[in-house]
Each structure stands twice: as C-alpha cells, then as structure tokens.
C-alpha cells in the first residue's frame, strides 16, 4: 500500500475537500484523513498511479505539493538536515559577503554551485577568499541580525526527538553558524566547515578537508551505523546539488524549495510547504506536533 499526501503552505492553506476528494476518487483511494484542515491530507492507494507526475504538475499551479510513498516504514528514526536555505532561510556565506560588500558576486557563485553548475569545493574556496580581512565579529552580527529559521523547523526537530529519533545537522557552510542553529533547534550534533581566523580577522580560507557532497553521505553512513539503523530509517532534507548524495541514500530524501536540477532527481519535492511537510509525510497530524 502507498500513501498519497497533499499539502500546502501553512501560511496560506490552499487545500479544499473538492480537490482532495476528486483525486482520491480518480485513484480509487481509501478513506480521506485530514492531517491539518485546509493544510494537509492523506489517503491510501494500492499502487503508485501511472500519471503521478502529470497530476503533481497540475497541482503545483494550485500551490499544492503531492507526495506518494510506501505506507510501510513511514516514521523515521533519524533526521539528517542541510542548514542553509533549509533549516534557515538564508545562505550564511552570502550574508557575510553582503556585509563585506561583495554580496552580488558571491550570491552568483552560490546559486551556480547549488544548482550543480560549479564544483562545490572550488566554489567554496573562491567565495571564502572574497571574505578575507572581515572582522570575526561579523559572524555574530549576521547571526543576530540576518539569520531566520525556516517555518516548521522547530516543530520538526522537537517532534522527531520526542519520539526517539536522532537529529543531525550537516552543512557545507560553517560551524560558527551550525553550532548556533543546532543548539537553538535542538539537534543532537552538527557537522560543517570551519572559517579560519587569525588575529580577529577572517584569513579568506576554510579549514581542510572541505565538507561537501561526499561528507554528507559519509555523515549519513556513519551516524546510521552508530545508531544501528538502516538507511531506510533516515529522512534527509536539503535544497542544493551537494545534498543529492544524502537525499538519494536516505529512505526518504526531501528536496525542499530546491533548485530545479535537484528537485528533478527526488521523489519527494516540497515547493510550497515548509519543514512541517516532513512530519506530514511521516503520517503526523498537526495535533501530534510537539509543543515548541
């Protein structure tokens, strides 16, 4: 059996009974269950519909995301999450660059790297090089004035941890930011690159080795082995090309507001919902979310 989950942006719910019930009837689905009225609903089907992606495309124009997943093993025992543009709404290196006055150049490189058009390591070295000479204090300035959390993230981490899951934050960004984000949201551990500092200023180089796509896969493999769980018990979420390895290896790989080239390679594509979508696809109703 498979579960069809329909969801929208919680800030502007777009689901209505007519749309949901029409699809349920067309696909011969089971009983309709509202996970959050107007926001998320699900029903069971016996097999993956052959026109899944045609229907998905049509629903996208209505602001609705649709996910079809096996009913068995929906609840995961581990969350592996990217940070920039995933758990937070910014790309930290872009924010640092903006303060340094080289924002547009760095944003251009970031966009190409996240879309898989540039080698991640080379792009990181080039961007960090443009930050040379910035005072170290600018990191805290960006945290205090520019970093905002993706909606649904606190509920996602708190709910999964309440139910015994392990939560790891793994980023191609920097420990100066992942440490703050991990502590604030309640992640069990975090992994990222380091920004080298000398005499209170950024030297324009990251610490080596650089954590990129392979390191995210390695994190999934190492942590799941340590926990004694299979990869199928992991739900991973990210938006960039360097996330694809872990998204494909995880039992549920979620492309969240991802670059088109990334979303195209993932079966779980969240373009309208927020991080609460990761709870809905696991079968949680909104009333099941942990209080935060």
How would you describe the overall organization of this protein?
The chain has a six-stranded parallel sheet with strand order 7-6-5-10-11-12. Strands 2-3-1-4 form a four-stranded antiparallel sheet. A two-stranded antiparallel sheet has the order 8-9. The mean pLDDT is 95. The protein is α/β, with parallel strands linked by helices. The protein is elongated, with a radius of gyration of 20 Å. It starts with a strand and ends in a 12-residue tail after the last helix. Helix 3 packs antiparallel against helix 4. It is built from twelve helices and twelve strands. The protein has helices at residues 17-26, 52-60, 92-100, 103-114, 120-129, 137-145, 153-162, 175-185, 213-227, 244-249, 260-263, 277-280; strands at residues 2-7, 33-36, 40-45, 65-70, 78-81, 166-174, 189-193, 195-198, 201-206, 234-238, 252-256, 268-270. The protein has a domain at 1-72: 2-Layer Sandwich (Alpha-Beta Plaits). Helix 8 (175-185) links the parallel strand 6 (166-174) and strand 7. It is 37% helix and 22% strand.
Describe the SSE topology.
Layout: E1 2-7, H1 17-26, E2 33-36, E3 40-45, H2 52-60, E4 65-70, E5 78-81, H3 92-100, H4 103-114, H5 120-129, H6 137-145, H7 153-162, E6 166-174, H8 175-185, E7 189-193, E8 195-198, E9 201-206, H9 213-227, E10 234-238, H10 244-249, E11 252-256, H11 260-263, E12 268-270, H12 277-280
Parallel strand pairs: 5-6, 5-10, 6-7, 10-11, 11-12
Antiparallel strand pairs: 1-3, 1-4, 2-3, 8-9
């Amino acid at each position: 059996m498979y579960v069809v989950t329909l969801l929208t942006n919680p800030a502007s719910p777009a689901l209505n009974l007519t749309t949901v019930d029409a699809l349920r009837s067309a696909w011969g689905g089971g009983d309709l269950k509202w996970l959050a009225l107007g926001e998320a609903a699900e029903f069971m089907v016996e097999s993956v519909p052959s026109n899944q992606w045609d229907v998905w495309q049509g629903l996208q124009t209505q602001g609705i995301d649709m996910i079809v997943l096996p009913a068995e093993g929906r609840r995961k025992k581990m969350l592996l999450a990217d940070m920039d543009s995933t758990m937070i709404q910014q790309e930290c290196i872009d924010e640092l660059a903006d303060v340094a006055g080289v924002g547009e150049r760095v944003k251009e490189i970031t966009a190409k790297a996240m879309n898989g058009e540039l080698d991640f390591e080379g792009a990181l070295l080039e961007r960090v090089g443009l930050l040379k000479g910035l005072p170290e204090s600018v990191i805290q300035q960006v945290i205090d004035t520019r970093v905002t959390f993706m909606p649904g993230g606190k509920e996602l981490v708190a709910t999964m941890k309440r139910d015994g899951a392990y939560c790891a934050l793994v980023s191609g960004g920097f420990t100066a930011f992942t440490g703050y984000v991990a502590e604030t949201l309640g992640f069990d551990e975090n992994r990222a690159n380091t920004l080298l500092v000398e005499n209170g200023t950024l030297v324009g180089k990251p610490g080596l080795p650089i954590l990129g796509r392979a390191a995210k896969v390695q994190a999934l493999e190492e942590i799941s082995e340590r926990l004694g769980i299979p990869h199928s018990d992991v739900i991973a979420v990210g938006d960039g090309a360097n996330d694809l390895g872990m998204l494909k290896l995880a039992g549920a790989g979620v492309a969240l507001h991802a670059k088109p080239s990334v979303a195209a390679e993932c079966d779980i594509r969240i373009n309208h919902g927020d991080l609460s979508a990761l709870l809905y696809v696991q079968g949680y109703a909104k009333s099941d979310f942990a209080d935060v």
